[in-house]
Amino acid sequence: MAITTSTHGASLTLIEKSTILFPINCYLVREDDGLTLVDTNWTNTAPAILAAARKLGAPIRRIVLTHAHGDHVGSLDALHQSLPDAEVLISEREARILARDFSLDADEPQTKPRGDYPVIATRQSRTVRPGDMVGSLRVVASPGHTPGHVSFFDTRDGTLIAGDALFTFTGIGVSGAFRLRFPFSSMATWDKPTALQSARALAELQPTRLAVGHGPVLTAPQQAIEKAIAAMGKRLAGRAAQQAATVTP
Which of 40, 103, 179, 245 could potentially form a cystine with 75 if both were Cys, beta carbons 3.0 to 4.6 Å apart? Predict the structure, then answer.
């Protein structure tokens, strides 16, 4: 299990933990007052994250979470112990899941959230809503992988940190797309039609760079994102047609 750190431009630093099954990413975003950490990776990654911040010569001022799956919040408690003054931010909807409330709203698809949700003692300092700014990052709604999943769009350079709304490991895909070498996105996605709708909204941002939870950072990703959206749309349409044929007398 290896951990690598790489800088992508002036503002974005990737911390990648390579496991036997798949890579897990989190990111340090440089701001005028220090660093924003986007996601906390799996357990036992806090020392590598803190070391990367020291290497950058800036303190971690805030921790923002795309969603509450274990491979994104796994090191939150350890980091909170080391950084008690750092803000912890999560979307209003996802905060319920972080607190292990898996109830669904009446207007949501009535499918139980899927994936690994570990017990986390740390609670958010405050919640965020789509459109809010966290330093230079604009909060963008991107539900589907989980009910309260959000992405972060850097208004300075067009970088989109999309969490698990998209993935680039084994090739770019929309959350929920099945890949033989990476079935976990499909297995852990709550509602695939909602994920597809979110991917379309993210594509409208026309990001200059795409940073995701699993896989390499992509530069000039627009064409690849649109191709992934088309593939997912075709697959879901085919599935819907099959289901309709099954119930038609």
Answer: 40
One DSSP character per residue, 93-130 reads HHHHHHTT-----TTS------S---------SEEE-T
Backbone angles phi, psi at 201, to 5 degrees: -65, -40
Q: Cα separations (Å) of 146 from 41, 53, 233?
A: 17, 29, 19
Which ranges in the chain belong to alpha helices (H)?
46-56, 70-73, 76-82, 92-98, 184-188, 192-203, 222-247
Q: How many CA atoms lie within 13 A of 172 on its CB side?
A: 22
**CATH number for the domain including 173?**
3.60.15.10
95-130 confidence digits (pLDDT tens): 999 999 999 999 999 999 999 999 999 999 999 999
Total number of domains constituting the chain: 1
CA–CA distance, 149 with 154 (Å, rounded to integer): 17
Strand 137-141 versus strand 60-64 pairing type:
unpaired
128-148 pLDDT per residue, tens: 999 999 999 999 999 999 999
